[in-house]
Design a protein that fits this description.
485 residues; 2 domains; two-stranded antiparallel ribbon
Length: 485
């Protein structure tokens, strides 16, 4: 770090404003933040094709926007914003305020006459926790709509999916012998944006503790490893973390929303009332692309969703997963030198720098794993591989039994998954390496156990936390059988 000579870049204490500009561009194409400029902010055209009315097409949704669960009409003033260097609002400050220099976050009336930037101000100051969830939600929605038309599901879609779930519940209960969840699942046919909104809410309980421990680990590691002249980086990273994490959560959710079919495409135990979400625009696109019968295909997807709901309804499952994750993160030691290198290599004058950082496959923060950490990581990997493998096993067995067009659907699903290499929620947001090959091992484990015994014996893996297979047992199912039967 000391060997780098980058005189053209501002020092660490000035990075916040430059990165704030990059965050702004996530929400407002053409945003330029001019610190020291009398207006503080202006918007310019991103290219010759951009017009004033397209200042924020990815955040607004057909003239409306969803904020805190409510649909708000388009502000009539929004269409009056001008590009090409014309000033929008007034935000003259002689010294920085909280949230970024010259950006007006400390003054609630700073952008009262500029609704677009008032919304940006609200987003940037909306969270005091380890993740800026409003930023995550809006970045996610903005990315989700890139997949194409995000039309509202019809009443027919709702009825078909409701029927598919009720049929699946009967057959999953019969086939697995697992006790049914205590509550009746609420079935929701949603748009891609609705899926992002729902998961930005129900993933809080999982990701916030992880994000908080990551933030604490940054400070611990920075305090131990940084030279005295770089101590200020620790505080800077703590202030920047909610924005970075919010941006990356949004990037991941938006990317997933373009292809997920249901709620448990992120196969995680959830808190709160039982609900199943089906992303109708993606279902329709898949059925059209592969010429599939909608009723049969949606029944197969419902079988997968309901199986995961039965799994995670076991009283110990969610608490066990959270325990494994907390144990892994509690002793996490971050690679601060790696973080320094990434920040040093990022040009803060480049407004796309933060976006590129958030899209990085490695995630924002990564750790040096010792033997103890690898053991803890292996426990998480075993839990998730077993859960997803069992879900796929039940879906395929019941699909072959119930659906006349199952061979065609099976081939389509196989090709659909060929492009999946890893799970971005685990890899990029939690630092947990989960590859598609690990999920296949979980499915192979289930198939071999059933070949050797029966479905009732396999279902014993859901009796308790101790009954779940370990990584070595997933590799060699006979070890699990010897311990269980």
């Amino acid at each position: 770090m000391q060997d780098r000579h980058l005189p053209e870049r501002p020092p660490v204490e000035h990075l916040g404003g430059d990165l704030t500009e990059a965050l702004g561009r996530q929400l407002v194409p053409g945003l330029v933040v001019q610190f020291g400029h009398v207006s503080g902010i202006r918007a310019v055209a991103d290219g010759a094709h951009e017009h004033a009315r397209s200042a924020c097409p990815r955040v607004a949704d057909e003239g409306e926007r969803l904020v805190d669960g409510e649909r708000l009409g388009r502000d009539s003033n929004q269409d009056r914003l001008r590009h090409g260097g014309h000033r929008i609002g007034r935000a003259a400050y002689d010294e920085p305020v909280s949230g970024g220099p010259g950006f007006g976050f400390g003054d609630p009336d700073a952008f009262k006459d500029a609704p677009l930037f008032r919304e940006l101000q609200r987003v940037m100051s909306s969270s005091s926790g380890p993740v800026n969830w409003e930023l995550a939600r809006q970045v996610g929605v903005a990315n989700a709509v890139e997949a194409g038309p995000d039309l509202e599901p019809s009443e027919g879609d709702h009825r078909m999916l409701e029927e598919a779930v009720r049929v699946a519940e009967l057959h999953v209960g019969r086939f697995t012998g697992l006790p049914a969840p205590a509550d009746v699942a609420q079935v929701h046919a949603v748009r891609r944006a609705g899926w992002v909104n729902a998961n930005a809410e129900n993933l809080k309980g999982l990701l916030e503790p992880a994000a908080r421990q990551l933030t604490d680990a940054i400070e611990r590691s920075a305090g131990d490893q940084l030279p005295p002249e770089m101590k200020q980086l620790s505080g800077f990273l703590r202030q920047l973390s909610p924005l970075l994490l919010g941006t990356q959560v949004g990037q991941v959710l938006g990317m997933l929303a373009q292809r997920v079919l249901g709620q448990y495409d992120i196969a995680l135990p959830r808190s709160g009332p039982g609900q199943l979400l089906f992303v109708v625009p993606n279902l329709v696109a898949f059925e059209r692309d592969w010429s599939l019968d909608p009723r049969e295909f949606r029944t197969l997807v419902a079988l997968h969703e309901v199986t995961h709901r039965f799994e995670f309804a076991q009283g110990w499952a969610r608490a066990r997963f959270q325990e494994l994750l907390d144990d892994y993160l509690s002793t996490l030691k971050l690679d601060v030198e790696g973080m320094q290198g990434r920040l040093a290599s990022m040009d803060p004058a480049d407004p796309e720098a933060l976006q590129q950082l958030a899209r990085s496959e490695e995630g924002l923060f990564w750790a040096d794993l010792d033997d103890e950490q690898r053991l803890k990581l292996g426990r998480i990997q075993a839990f998730m591989a077993a859960a997803e493998g069992y879900g796929d096993h039940v879906m395929q067995a019941l699909g072959a039994e119930l659906l006349g067009t199952y061979p065609r659907i099976e081939e389509a699903m196989k090709r659909y998954r060929e492009g999946e290499h890893g799970d971005p929620v685990f890899e990029r947001l939690l630092g947990v390496d989960m590859k598609r090959e690990q999920y296949r091992k979980g499915e192979a484990f289930c198939e071999l156990v059933v070949e050797q015994t029966d479905e009732a014996t396999l279902a014993r893996m859901w009796d308790s936390a101790d009954a779940m297979p370990s990584l070595p047992e997933l590799e060699e199912p006979r070890l699990w059988l010897a311990r269980t039967v």
